[in-house]
Design a protein that fits this description.
By secondary structure, the chain is mainly alpha-helical. The chain contains 17 helices and 4 strands. Helix content is about 55%, strand content about 5%. The strands form 2 sheets. It has a two-stranded parallel ribbon. Keywords: Membrane, Transmembrane, Transmembrane helix.
């Protein structure tokens, strides 16, 4: 696009400018000349980047010449196959198919490499224009400040300042040239001028009647490059975070069922021989079955004892009611002074001892029934 020799001038101008500007700043006791080294360094780096990319783009993408010569020599040394001597052409799915596939892969790799090594002037012309404009403005600013302070310099100091500003001036002119050239190419100024000129003259040739005026307006390279860059930009998609699952406290509280509902569910469940699972989530909130009052269920207690399940209830009531309240020994001593009520209690106790009674002892072991005999010897308790 542009002469590459000017980029080389921008790179080479930093070499003499470094000692001259540094010496000028030290002698004049001013940091302005030495400040010009900063934009000059960026100018040299940017120009070197452009030159390196252009050289890689112009380099051949195929194998080096030495390798091609070696391959040709190997092909000459190898004897021809009988099929090749007779002019036999193998099918596409054999050798030619492999060759075609390899050729396609080579072409695709060459295309990808050409796209990857495409000139930066063609891919990002706006960036190149902005960089050249910024570098030219920065170097020109340092030049103006140096020229304004050179009025009171002596002859030797003025000569040193002139030698130091020459590389800066050369680099500034190079970047201004590339900036103007990039602006003209980016906005398609020659094409637009030609299109406007065609609007003034007649659209058809007066001699042959051929249509000469272009119908469509020229494309703007800057707009086209911006559109291509937006189309080729990858969409950044952040990984979706997994949803946070919180426990449903309301459902957990409402899912508790009473013992009666559990018994009905156990009866309705088919007998499969497997152990029944507790459906209530609040099972751990209930007291154990052995702690509490209740009637004695001999069949259920015996089954639990054999299966190694829960033990029987701690407080057993044969009548199915609540257990009688606890009485201390002093209560019975106080009952002696109650008169007839106290005298009637031993008789009732003796009558209850004489009657036959079964005492059921329920626990981890099997039940044992102890019956009091009515024909026990006198003076001995029935149990």
């Amino acid at each position: 696009m542009a002469p590459q020799g000017l980029r080389v001038v921008a790179v080479a101008s930093f070499v003499p400018a470094f000692p001259l500007l540094l010496a000028h700043g030290i002698v004049s006791h001013s940091p302005v000349p030495a400040t010009g080294l900063v934009p000059l360094a960026f100018s040299a780096g940017f120009s070197l980047f452009i030159l390196r990319r252009r050289a890689r783009r112009q380099a051949p993408l195929s194998a080096p010449p030495g390798n091609e010569r070696d391959n040709e020599r190997d092909n000459e040394r190898q004897p021809l196959l009988p099929s090749e001597e007779a002019g036999f052409v193998p099918p596409e799915d054999d050798a030619d198919g492999v060759a075609i596939n390899s050729q396609d892969n080579h072409d695709g790799q060459r295309t990808s490499n050409s796209r990857r090594l495409e000139d930066i002037h063609d891919r990002l012309p706006i960036i190149v224009f902005l960089a050249d404009t910024a570098l030219a403005a920065a170097i020109l600013t340092v030049l103006v400040y140096t020229w304004l302070r050179s009025g009171g310099f002596s002859g030797q100091l003025a000569m040193l300042a002139a030698y130091g500003t020459i590389p800066m001036l050369a680099s500034t002119l190079v970047h201004i040239y590339f900036a103007v050239r990039g602006l003209s190419h980016g906005l398609a100024l020659p094409e637009l001028t030609r299109w406007v000129a065609w609007q003034v003259v007649p659209a058809d040739c007066p001699g042959c009647g051929h249509h000469l005026r272009p119908e469509a307006t020229p494309d703007i390279p800057w707009f086209q490059s911006a559109r291509n860059a937006a189309a080729s930009t990858r969409e950044w998609r952040f990984p979706a975070l997994p949803p946070l699952a919180f426990p449903d406290v309301r459902a957990w509280v409402r899912s508790g069922v009473d013992d009666g509902d559990e018994d009905e569910d156990a009866e309705a469940r088919p007998a499969t021989g497997a152990e029944s699972t507790t459906t209530s989530r609040r099972q751990w909130l209930r007291p154990p079955a052995w702690l509490g009052y209740g009637a004695v269920d001999e069949t259920a207690d015996e089954q639990r004892s054999e299966d190694g399940g829960e033990t029987a209830r701690l407080f057993v009531d044969h009548d199915g009611g609540t257990a009688p309240p606890y009485h201390d020994r002093d209560d019975f001593d106080n009952d002696r002074y109650d008169g007839g009520a106290a005298a009637a209690r031993p008789a009732q106790a003796l009558a209850s001892n004489n009657s036959a009674e079964e005492v059921v002892v329920v626990g981890k072991k099997k039940q044992r029934k102890i019956s009091s005999s009515s024909d026990a010897p006198d003076g001995e308790p029935g149990w």
